[in-house]
Structures are given as structure tokens and as C-alpha cells.
Design brief:
Blueprint: E1 2-4, H1 5-8, E2 15-17, E3 23-25, E4 27-32, E5 37-41, E6 66-71, E7 79-90, E8 100-103, E9 115-118, E10 123-130, E11 141-145, H2 146-159, E12 165-166, E13 169-173, H3 176-182, E14 190-195, H4 200-204, E15 211-215, E16 218-219, H5 223-231, E17 238-245, E18 248-255, E19 257-258, E20 286-288, E21 293-297, H6 300-306, E22 314-319, H7 324-328, E23 335-339, E24 342-343, H8 347-354, E25 363-369, E26 372-378
Antiparallel strand pairs: 1-5, 2-3, 4-5, 6-7, 6-9, 7-8, 8-11, 9-10, 10-11, 12-19, 13-14, 14-15, 15-16, 15-17, 17-18, 20-21, 21-22, 22-23, 23-24, 23-25, 25-26
Length: about 375
């Protein structure tokens, strides 16, 4: 039986109640917190029979398709609600590996683990989460796609845990500004913001600001596409990857390895967030009027307070409201590690890196925060 990890997590025992009132004590519970999926086993008595719902293909579900959600909201068993697929590929920072189906079929506390069905009666998702201000239904619910849940459950059944392949990169969506600077189309591929040391990506020669267009023949239109393509590959095997580097398209081979337990599928590692306190360098902040910012030295004390002890760069001080930097999303307390791939470890190095840079052509900052590394495109 498939359900959500958060439904069974921490329970001393789990009972399964069927619609006809039969109850069974669940055994063999196995979970995958990364996707919030769990499986459990029940043992029927001799001659008993359980009817299984057929699984559909969540990749074929389209926005606007009618769906039914079944669950036990507020303890009301076997409640059915109707709605449509509102969106696909949603990320809400509830789990590490997210590619949610969004629906406006009413999902409330107690619906978790229940099926999301298409009108053929096939399961296309596992109801998992809601977005709400009231604590109840606000018209926005989320389900794990059944294709992902099926792959996870198969591994839990056959291996006892989920073994994922990984590249070892921090990746992000290609927005309009980054696309213009990197010579790709907006929304095309996934841009590499960080390379983890000793990772498959580093060994393959991947570089920051590379844009990954496809992996093993599977088109990549964003971070979720890449994570989904990579994680199901055979660990230790080499696969082709198409990238754009400095405007040039090329193919490189990469040998994937098993994802470490502390690593996340989009390249982030959990870290405790510090505050954004920062100290001025001995010569005071250095101002850059065209950008509308001031930068300061990143001292070891400040880096430790921010929870980014290994960072090197400059701390963003004041950001002028309405400036090009502010409109691009730069904010006080962020750390700029590089400018157009040129590392900067002091305000003076930042000033040198900015020489000859044209805001009309655009530039890319590598930014570090307690949440990890990201790339920020700035262009007038």
C-alpha cells in the first residue's frame, strides 16, 4: 500500500482501515522522505481479496484535465472531491524532490496519502500537501506524480531504500536576463551555479554558468527535468550530456554516482541559516553607483554568523531602491563570490572585475546565501 511518509513517520504502529470496516496492522513500512512517499504491507486472511486501483501515466496529464481526490479530511472517511489539474511541475519547498501536480480539487488535512484520479479511474498522483492561510482548503493542493511515486515504491519494495544517481551540481532555472547573457532561450535548459568538490560533475569537467540542455537524450527545460533524468540512471555508468558554454554547444560524457544521503536533488545541502549581520572592511564600504550598491569585506566572523564559513567574496551592503541591482533581486547581506566567472575576495577585486563590464550587455553574479549558491543576471 502506498501513502505519504509524513502519514506514518514516527508512528509506533500503523493500522489500515478499509472502506468496509476491515482493519489490519501494517508491517514492513519503508519510506523515502525525499519524495514524502512510503509503502507498507498488510497480510489478508486466507480467501480475502484486495482490489487495487490501476496506475495511470502522470506525464500524460494536462492542465485542465478533470481529476478526483479521495481521502479522509477531518476524519470524514472516503470523501471524494472534484477539480482540475491546475499546473504541473510545482515546487513548494515541502520536500527535497518535488515535481508536484497542482489541483483545485479540495484537499484538506486528512487527504494526505490518498489518490488523485483521472476520469478513467487511474491514479495519477498521491495527495500530499496544501497551500493555505486558514489551515484548510484554499483552492491550491499538491500531489506527487504517480510516475515518480511508482519508481520510488518499486525501489523501496525491491531494495528497501531509494538509490539515486547524481551529478553534484547546484542548478537553477534560466530566466530572461540570464538567457540573454548566456546566449540561450529563456526557460531552456538548467544553468549550473555550483560544482560540488569531487563530484561526478567536477570529474566530467562541468563548469559554473554551463547550461545543460539535455541528459542522455532527455530534453531539459529546468532543474526538475534534469533531476528527474539523472536520478533514475544506473550508478557508475557514463551518459552523454549536451551543454552550452560561452555560447558554444558541446557534448560531454559524465559518469554518475550514488547521491550522498546529506545531498539534495537540486544541488543544495542543508545548512543552518544565520543572520545577515555584516561588518564594514577597514576602509569602509565601496560604492558602485551604476549598480546602486555598496560592497564590504567578508570577514571570517561575518561568514560564520551568516552560516557560510567556507564562502569567499564581498558582502552586499546598501542596495539603492529602484536601482538595476535591486530590480534584479540583489539584496543586503548577500555575498557576491564572482563577477562573470571572475572570483572576487575583496572590494578591490570586485572593483577590478567590474572594469569594462557593460550593463547593457549584462553580467552574472555568483551569489552565496545561507541557502546555498545561485546565479543572478543583471542587465539594463
Amino acid at each position: 500500500i502506498m501513502t505519504n511518509n509524513h502519514v506514518v513517520n514516527g508512528a509506533s504502529e500503523v493500522k489500515v482501515r478499509f472502506a468496509d470496516g476491515r482493519e489490519y496492522l501494517a508491517t514492513g513500512i519503508k519510506t523515502d522522505p525525499r519524495t514524502d512517499i512510503a509503502i507498507l504491507r498488510v497480510n489478508p486472511a486466507s480467501g480475502e481479496h484486495f482490489e487495487a486501483l490501476p496506475l495511470g501515466n502522470s506525464d500524460q496529464a494536462e492542465v485542465g484535465d478533470w481529476v478526483l481526490a479521495i481521502g479522509s479530511p477531518f476524519g470524514l472517511d472516503m470523501t471524494v472531491t472534484a477539480g482540475i489539474v491546475s499546473a504541473k511541475g510545482r515546487h513548494i519547498d515541502k520536500t527535497d524532490r518535488e515535481d508536484f501536480i497542482q489541483t483545485d480539487a479540495a484537499i484538506n488535512p486528512g487527504n494526505s496519502g490518498g489518490p488523485l484520479l483521472n476520469l478513467d479511474g487511474e491514479v495519477i498522483g498521491i495527495n500530499t500537501a496544501i497551500s493555505t492561510r486558514s489551515g484548510g482548503y484554499d483552492g491550491v493542493g499538491f500531489a506527487v506524480p504517480i510516475n515518480m511515486a511508482h519508481w520510488v515504491s518499486d525501489q523501496l519494495i525491491t531494495k528497501g531504500s531509494v538509490r539515486r544517481a547524481y551529478l553534484g551540481v547546484g542548478i537553477q532555472q534560466v530566466n530572461g536576463t540570464l538567457a540573454a547573457v548566456l546566449h540561450v532561450n529563456a526557460g531552456e535548459g538548467a544553468i549550473v551555479g555550483e560544482i560540488k568538490p569531487n563530484s561526478p560533475a567536477e570529474k566530467a569537467g562541468l563548469k559554473t554558468q554551463d547550461v545543460i540542455l539535455d541528459f542522455n537524450g532527455q530534453k531539459v527545460d529546468g532543474p526538475s527535468d534534469l533531476a528527474g533524468a539523472v536520478e533514475r540512471m544506473e550508478v557508475g555508468k557514463t551518459y552523454p550530456m549536451t551543454i552550452v558554454r560561452d555560447g558554444k554547444r558541446m557534448s560531454i560524457p559524465v559518469t554518475v554516482q550514488e547521491m550522498p544521503s546529506h545531498y539534495t536533488s537540486l544541488g543544495r545541502e542543508e545548512s543552518e541559516e544565520g543572520n545577515n549581520e555584516n561588518n564594514a572592511n577597514p576602509n569602509g564600504p565601496m560604492s558602485f553607483e551604476e549598480l546602486g550598491i555598496e560592497v564590504k569585506e567578508l570577514t571570517p566572523q561575518v561568514a560564520e554568523k551568516m552560516g557560510i564559513k567556507d564562502a569567499k567574496g564581498v558582502v552586499v551592503g546598501t542596495v539603492k531602491p529602484g536601482s538595476v541591482a535591486a530590480e534584479a533581486g540583489l539584496s543586503e547581506g548577500m555575498v557576491i563570490e564572482s563577477v562573470n566567472k571572475h572570483s572576487v575576495a575583496s572590494p578591490e577585486q570586485f572593483q577590478e572585475a567590474m572594469k569594462g563590464v557593460s550593463l547593457k550587455k549584462g553580467l552574472i553574479f555568483q551569489i552565496r546565501t545561507p541557502r546555498g549558491t545561485t546565479l543572478l543576471g543583471i542587465r539594463k
